[in-house]
Amino acid sequence: MFTGEKVRLRAYRKEDLDKALQFINDPEVRRFLAPGIPFPMTVADEEKFLSKQSAFNTDAYSFAIETLEGEYIGGCGINNIDWKNSVAVVGIFIGNKDYWGKGYGTDAMRVLLRFIFEQMNINKVKLFVYDFNKRAIRCYEKCGFKVEGVLRQEIYRDGEYHDQLVMGILRSEWFGAENRR
């Protein structure tokens, strides 16, 4: 487990399944996550996701996010790793809306970045975020991410096309930042 000021990152457990399914199928949560058709995930889909989680995986690593009191509230992870160029792509979600806008996502992202830079020796971390996800963009900026590009009208959501931002942070920026806790 990897601990921050408000959260800890840990392996997913079978007992997370029901809450994870509830979180991922919440239309408000899902709106910010998946670029495809917002069709509900099934129990089989979540079970398949959980069964793929392994410490022996070298392409992706997923963590459950829980409060320091032990409540499972979301997930984050490294979705893709380019070992040759030392670049990782990350993602995060807080599924329990009671914890939105209260710093839990920012703390989880900082813990994830610390893991990536200090344990994996990655040089650059990047992510993709929809331009309408203002709360997430603020979180990423607080963690030191910078906008590196805009994919214009990349996502169709709620009857409109929206831009997708590409954001990144370099290892040297992370180790030079005061937010590295």
Please bin the fraction of helical residues: 25-40%
Q: Which oligomerization state do the chains in this entry correspond to?
A: single chain
Approximate shape: globular
Mean pLDDT comes to 90
Low-confidence stretches: none
Can you tell me the CATH architecture of one domain?
A: 3-Layer(aba) Sandwich
Strand order in the largest sheet: 1-2-3-4-5-6-8-7
CATH level 4 superfamily of one domain: Gcn5-related N-acetyltransferase (GNAT)
CATH topology of one domain: Aminopeptidase
CATH class of one domain: Alpha Beta
Written as H for each helix and E for each strand, in order along the chain, the element string is: EEHHHEEEHEHEEH
What is the count of β-strands? Answer: 8
Question: Structural class, from helix and strand content?
Answer: alpha+beta
Largest sheet: 8 strands, mixed
Give the helix tally.
Answer: 6
Instruction: Report the end-to-end length measured between terminal Cα atoms.
Output: 15 Å
Estimate the strand proportion. 25-35%
Architecture overview:
Helix 1 (17-25) packs across helix 3 (43-52). The chain is α+β, with helices and mostly antiparallel strands and 181 residues long. It is globular. It has a domain at 2-124: Aminopeptidase (3-Layer(aba) Sandwich). The protein is built from six helices and eight strands. 29% of the residues are buried. A hairpin with a 3-residue loop joins strand 1 (2-3) and strand 2 (7-10). The mean pLDDT is 90. It has an eight-stranded mixed beta sheet, sandwiched between helices. This is RimJ/RimL family protein N-acetyltransferase. It comes from Thermosediminibacter litoriperuensis. One of its GO terms (molecular function) is acyltransferase activity, transferring groups other than amino-acyl groups.
